[in-house]
């Protein structure tokens, strides 16, 4: 197990009140012992693997911070059937913090490190859970419940996930840009997100500042889809981009980008 870097309650108190958290933070526990403990706990009382400690941290978050890919693998394995049903029995929404900045620095190098493996495991588990939620939890028929006559709860959920995925994935694409130069033709044709734009826009040349604003648009769409009874439109998207740029909550380049939407 990795070195204990936790802070907060004393070890004795942690062992008594939060034995799972304590074991995951204790370097004296071997991977085999941790695996046996996690399987036993989940079989006896699965709720304990989603229990926050006094710092609000769940076991899966502790394992991620400690860099224990083995513990994460075991938890995701035992909880797999429920995750596939769309049930967040491990608190994945709290563990997946999407460490974007690290990914953009050196993707090839990070893919070889335990930290990247952990991020990928959490990301894949979240995708399984979301697909399970769409399949098992969302209503099969939503007649009469559509926003603006077209946006059903089911479509809202899926579109929000697509917008969020695009916003995250586009960060690594920023490394393809050269200062004060447009994206080269090969990289532009290889970028799946640019396919949403009119050809005339792409033909003019895509600069980094434009791409930042374009990425901000996915951020805004994602947030708007999270508001009940709200449906994104060209007008509302323009307004939100301008407001976000003004307040500094979005990249300033989105002010220029909003002129074409």
Notes on the protein architecture:
By secondary structure, this protein is mainly α. It is 60% helix and 0% strand. It is built from 16 helices and no strands. The longest helix is centred in the middle third of the chain and has 23 residues, at 114-136. The radius of gyration is 22 Å and the shape is globular.
Question: Order of SSEs, N→C?
Answer: HHHHHHHHHHHHHHHH
Mean pLDDT: 78
Structural class: mainly alpha
Report the total helices. Answer: 16
In one word, what is the shape? globular
Quick description:
With 261 residues, this protein is mainly α. 60% of the residues lie in helices and 0% in strands. The longest helix has 23 residues.
Index terms:
60% helix; disordered C terminus; mainly alpha; 16 helices
């Amino acid at each position: 197990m990795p070195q204990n870097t936790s802070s907060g309650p004393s070890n004795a108190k942690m062992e008594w009140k939060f034995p799972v958290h304590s074991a995951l933070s204790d370097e004296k526990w071997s991977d085999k012992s941790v695996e046996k403990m996690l399987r036993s706990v989940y079989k006896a009382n699965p709720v304990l693997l989603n229990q926050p400690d006094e710092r609000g941290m769940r076991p899966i978050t502790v394992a991620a911070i400690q860099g224990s890919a083995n513990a994460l693998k075991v938890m995701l394995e035992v909880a797999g059937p429920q995750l596939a049903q769309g049930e967040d029995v491990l608190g994945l929404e709290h563990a997946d913090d999407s460490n974007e900045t690290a990914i953009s620095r050196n993707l090839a190098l990070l893919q070889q490190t335990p930290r990247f493996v952990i991020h990928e495991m959490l990301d894949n588990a979240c995708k399984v859970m979301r697909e399970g939620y769409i399949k098992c939890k969302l209503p099969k028929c939503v007649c009469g419940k559509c926003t603006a006559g077209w946006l059903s709860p089911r479509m809202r959920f899926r579109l929000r996930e697509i917008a969020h995925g695009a916003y995250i994935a586009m960060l690594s694409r920023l490394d393809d840009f050269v200062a004060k130069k447009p994206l080269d033709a090969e990289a532009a044709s290889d970028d799946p997100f640019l396919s949403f734009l009119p050809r005339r826009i792409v033909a003019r040349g895509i600069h980094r500042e434009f791409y930042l604003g374009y990425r901000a648009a996915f951020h805004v769409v994602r947030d708007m889809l999270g508001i009940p009874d709200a449906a994104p439109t060209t007008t509302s998207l323009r307004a939100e981009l301008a407001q976000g740029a003004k307040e500094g909550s979005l990249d300033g380049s989105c002010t220029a980008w909003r002129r074409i939407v």
